[in-house]
Amino acid sequence: MRVGVLASGDGSNLQAILDRLHGREGVEVVAVGSDKPEARALERARATGVDARAFPVQGGDRRARDLAIADWLAGAGVELVVLAGYMQLLDPGFLARFPQRVINVHPALLPAFPGIGSVEQAVAYGVKVFGVTVHFVDEGVDTGPIIAQRAIELPGEPAAEDVRAALRPVEHDLLTGVVALIARGAVAVDPADPRHVAVRA
Ligand code: GRF
């Protein structure tokens, strides 16, 4: 399965995919894109010899940018798009090019705390259980069908920074696990009820 990854920042989730899956389990990372030319994720991709490219918005036209990314990924034969810390909403025209083939990792137990700043929101709310969600991407903000979730209890009153550090390895495990399952054909959206995702272990 040819995988394209979009990332805006450090790219530790991308690195987990490169280290654990790239060239194995039928997974080939063939393209890494970013909205930010300075994203470390692009360096990580290049260091592994993966084609990497930045797509900054030109003249405020986000739709044109997203369609250019879609063309680039489709041209590379991408079959699954992984959003790994990609901090932009994708245009519906992009999603239409990869129906049920775009996934995202989110550092909260959806539907709680969607959008940006989810860890800070969870800390401010005083939750005792934190977690990670991997879900299909639809046109909403973190509203697509859930593929996998993992929770962790953190005692005391952790700071957002500590929560983020505790969640990071959970993200890496959950996201790489889901990509491997999709590559094996073990993840299916129920056509009769597209909110529900069946995962064969
Ligand atoms: C992760 O916490 C991800 O859940 C969120 O952005 C962060 C990206 O981290 N959407 P990295 O760039 O993969 O290190």
Report the count of strand segments.
9
Bound molecules: 5-O-phosphono-beta-D-ribofuranosylamine
Globally, the shape reads globular
Element-level helix/strand string? EHEHEHEHEHEEHEE
Structural class: alpha/beta
Termini Cα gap: 18 Å
Sheet with the most strands, sense and barrel status: 7 strands, mixed
Oligomeric composition of the shown chains: single chain
Strand composition percent: 15-25%
Please mark out the parts with pLDDT under 50 across 5 or more consecutive residues, or reply none. none
Nearest-integer average pLDDT: 97
The strands making up the biggest β-sheet line up spatially as 3-2-1-4-5-6-7
Number of helices: 6
Helix content class: 25-40%
Radius of gyration: 16 Å
Features:
alpha/beta, 201 residues, seven-stranded mixed β-sheet, 6 helices, two-stranded antiparallel sheet, 9 strands, binds 5-O-phosphono-beta-D-ribofuranosylamine, single chain, 23% strand, globular
Give a summary of the structure in a few sentences.
With 201 residues, this protein is of the alpha/beta class.
Describe the structure.
With 201 residues, the protein is α/β, with parallel strands linked by helices. Helices cover 34% and strands 23% of the residues. It is built from 6 helices and 9 strands, in the order E-H-E-H-E-H-E-H-E-H-E-E-H-E-E. It has helices spanning 12-20, 40-47, 62-75, 92-97, 118-125, 160-183, and strands at residues 2-6, 28-34, 52-54, 80-83, 102-106, 129-136, 146-153, 187-189, 197-199. The strands form 2 sheets. A 7-stranded mixed beta sheet has the order 3-2-1-4-5-6-7. A two-stranded antiparallel sheet has the order 8-9. Strand 1, helix 1 (12-20) and strand 2 form a beta-alpha-beta unit. The longest helix is centred in the C-terminal third of the chain and has 24 residues, at 160-183. The two termini are 18 Å apart. It binds 5-O-phosphono-beta-D-ribofuranosylamine (GRF). Residues 7, 9-13, 84-85, 105-107, 171 line the site of 5-O-phosphono-beta-D-ribofuranosylamine (GRF).
